[in-house]
Amino acid sequence: xxxxxxxxxxxxxxxxxxxxxxxxxxxxxxxxxxxxxxxxxxxxxxxxxxxxxxxxxxxxxxxxxxxxxxxxxxxxxxxxxxxxxxxxxxxxxxxxxxxxxxxxxxxxxxxxxxxxxxxxxxxxxxxxxxxxxxxxxxxxxxxxxxxxxxxxxxxxxxxxxxxxxxxxxxxxxxxxxxxxxx
Length: 182
Description:
mainly alpha, globular
């Protein structure tokens, strides 16, 4: 395990590490509260099913990405290379998720005859997009990559690997949805 001295940690890495842990724990808390009334999760699943999305698969995806986000925060805090990989993956996944989520919200709105992509929801998506993209761009900085032991000159190649991983993840999601699993 390649751990750097925390005294040398760039301030932005500390902020992103804490952000990732807080976001992951916040999602876990929301899921815990929602599970207090199982009818809420079932209703959410039925709502997504109307547009061809498995509620169970969506819940599993949220749990996995939350766990990865938490681990990214810990990895960034301790200065591990894996923190860069997980942090970059989660941020890029967030950007891609928002871009693919907008058409889903439009379809949901069309299905129910009322707009699901309200101005408030769109503002939230724009803010989340900006945060995820900012984190990703920050993690690509030379000083950050050096601190985390990731070769800066390889950043575009590594970003391509992450993109392939995300496309693969979305492809797997589509296959699972089409197969009716979950």
